[in-house]
Design a protein that fits this description.
The chain has three helices and six strands; from the N terminus they run αβααβββββ. The chain is an alpha+beta fold and about 120 residues long. Strands 1, 2, 3, 4, 5 and 6 form a six-stranded antiparallel sheet that branches.
Length: about 120
């Protein structure tokens, strides 16, 4: 009988993303519309972008979950609307985000969400 491991990973990742959303609600979290995310982070394409590409472009994530199948990046938006990874040179009023990315067991990006925290 074949193991149900991939579906367990997907279920756990979905639960984790929900937990991140719920825990961020105290900070007035809001999921950014997918079309806006696609415009701002053009290289992120579900089913195409690899985990290696993400690491090369964004560096090490803030958090790893599920044996690196789910990663979270802290991002901020500057005055000009550019997104940057990490706290960097965050100004007091710069919006903060969590970029949550889920990967398949073979390293392809399965899905991603950008969550505004402020």
């Amino acid at each position: 009988m074949r193991s149900k491991r991939p579906s367990l990973i997907g279920s756990t990742a979905a639960a984790l993303a929900t937990l991140l959303l719920a825990s961020s609600c105290a900070q007035h979290a809001k999921v950014v519309a997918p079309e806006i995310v696609s415009e701002r982070l053009k290289f992120l394409r579900d089913g195409e972008t690899t985990q290696r590409e993400v690491l090369d472009r964004l560096g090490d994530p803030s958090h790893f979950f599920e044996r690196d199948h789910v990663v979270v990046y802290l991002m901020h938006e500057d005055y000009y609307g550019r997104l940057s990874v990490g706290p960097g040179n965050v100004k007091e009023n710069d919006p903060l985000y969590h970029l949550v990315i889920q990967f398949t067991s073979d390293g392809a990006m399965e899905r991603h969400s950008l969550i505004r925290l402020q």
